[in-house]
Each structure stands twice: as C-alpha cells, then as structure tokens.
From TrEMBL:
InterPro entries: ATP-NAD_kinase_N (IPR017438), Diacylglycerol/lipid_kinase (IPR005218), Diacylglycerol_kinase_cat_dom (IPR001206), Methylgl_synth (IPR004363), NAD/diacylglycerol_kinase_sf (IPR016064), YegS/DAGK_C (IPR045540). The keyword Nuclease does not apply. GO terms for cellular component: cytosol. This is YegS/Rv2252/BmrU family lipid kinase. Residues 1-128 form the DAGKc domain. SMART domains: DAGKc (SM00046). It comes from Myxacorys almedinensis A. The keyword DNA damage does not apply. Keywords: Kinase, Transferase. PANTHER family: METHYLGLYOXAL SYNTHASE.
Amino acid sequence: MPGSVRLIFNPVAGQGDPDQELALIKTLLADLNLEVCVTSKEIGADALAEEAVQQGVDAVIASGGDGTLSAAAKALMGTGIPLGVIARGTANAFANALEIPTTIEGACKTILHQYTQKIDIASCNGQPMVLLAGIGFEAETVEKANREAKNRFGILAYVLAGLRQLRDMEQFEAEVETDDKVISFSASALTVANAAPATSVLAQGPSGLVVDDGLLDLTIVAPTNRASAITATYHLFQSAISGNPSDRDDIGYVRSRRFKVTTHPPQKVVLDGEMIGTTPVDIECIPAGLTVFLPSPNEDAIATEKLDGLPDLVIESKD
Ligand SMILES: Nc1ncnc2c1ncn2[C@@H]1O[C@H](COP(=O)(O)OP(=O)(O)OP(=O)(O)O)[C@@H](O)[C@H]1O
C-alpha cells in the first residue's frame, strides 16, 4: 500500500497484553508506512482519526474495541479514506457484522490484501450510526452489561444481561413511519440495523442484513409473555445462524431507507453500544458513506482442506 497509514491503537481495549499485541501488529504490517498513535483518556480515536483526515493520510487502521472502531469510522465518514479494522474488544460487533476476521493475524492479512468496499452507514437523530440502534430491550441489555461483567464474562455478559432483562420485559406502543407507510403496534424491542453481528439477536428478523443496499432493517419483537420472549429470542438466534428470516407472529421486520420511531411511553435508545437518550428517533441510511478494508470475495471461499499443524506432517506430490 503506497502512502501514509495511521494506526490508532487503544491500549486498554479487551483482555490481551497491549504491548505484545502492538508489537505483533507492527511486525505483520511492517511493509506499510505506519504512523502509530496510541489513544489516551483525553485523546480518543475520534480526535486521532479526524487529525489523520486533515493530514490527508491514505488509510486509517483502528485497533481496539467497538468504541474505538466506531469512533474512527465516524471520523472517516464521507471522506473516502479506507478504514482497516483490527478488533481487540469483548464483543467485536463491528468486525463480526462486517465479517472481518477477529484475530490480529487475520485482520492484518485482510488489510494487506487491500480489497476495499464502500458500505452504507446511517444517521440517527443527527449522530453517525455504523451498526444499529436498539430501542427498549436492546438498550436495557447494553446498559446492564457493565464494564466489570464484560471483563469477567466477555461476550457472555451480553447474554446474561439479556436473560436478566427478560424478567422485566414490558411492552410499549410504537408508531413507525417508513418510506411508504405508517405502522402502529405494541412491542418489547425495536432494532433498526444497518449491519449487525449474529449475537445482536434482536436485529435478526430479516436475517442476512445487506450492508450496501442503501436500506435499513427494522426488527420488531413483541412477545406477550416470558415464555414466548425466550422462544422468540432463541428463534432469532437461529435465524441469524441459518440465514432464514423469522416466521413467528411475535416477530416482524420491514426494510426502508428511513425510519421515524415514536413510542409511548418513551424508550431508551442505544446507538452502536452507547446510550444516547430516549425516543423519538429519526434514522436515515447514508448509502456508501464509509470505505472499509474487507476480506476479498476470494478470501471468503470456504476452506476444503486444512492439514497445517498436524504432528509429523509430510505431504508428497504424486507427480
Ligand atoms: N489510554 C487509555 N487509558 C484509559 N482509557 C482509554 C485509553 N484509550 C482509550 N480509552 C477509553 O477506552 C474506551 C473505548 O474502549 P473500546 O471500545 O475500544 O474497548 P473495550 O471497552 O474494551 O471494548 P468492548 O466494549 O468491546 O469490551 C473509551 O471510553 C476511551 O475513553
């Protein structure tokens, strides 16, 4: 990759050894003209990425948890400067949603392949949104997956918080305005997603979210009792894994370029993992707003052979 590349590295993300991880990244990316910037409490990934844009760098690589990655993504929005992603957080929703490898080796390999793609992002009440906005249930889940729990239990913290939330599930009335209709219903959780990892179960109504179609997907979860809340959640998880859309009466989904959501009573809203306030929300897709290094379509091919690492391995060619 010619030109200058800024690496933004959060030393406190995840549970690994930051010195070792940074050394590994520098080794793997030794061929790049890399300027390493480490985030601090005072100077975050947003400021470092904005400065890189002003300097006219050719690419930015962000390494940290979802907070670091989405802060860098937001600063690069609309600039055409590609973002490389080296996820080192707990949930790594950003990388998982975009199917970017979550090992340091795999992530660096993806960047070195130099395959970039323009993906959609969105604006939620005027703030940039890369993945999703959760209203109701999802918002509560994030709030309950606190830092201490995340450190101790990793991704399980989100699941535990979700199960705890089932106990307190309450329905609210919602009115949603799409590009071509206004829908009213009762629900426990609404999620508007641009992209979502399989673990964001409440975004999985349509399954297989398309990140460059210029559209957003709303999933509505409306179970009427605790038992159906549990089966609906399980069903959504299966949808995510199987790629088949949901077909339960208490799950709905609709696709639109823009969603305006009002609820009674007002519900908490979490935007890309951060609480931003309460409904109403106005969320609009920004087509092709971000350029990202992604695994090239060839890299996606499913491996049909894996022999490396077997003890005493000898392979002889027959000809
Ligand atoms: N040097 C630093 N010292 C302390 N805090 C920092 C430092 N650099 C960044 N931060 C803080 O780290 C947070 C971002 O963390 P990030 O999302 O990257 O990782 P994480 O919280 O481990 O991820 P996850 O939520 O997936 O576990 C921000 O709140 C930022 O202020």
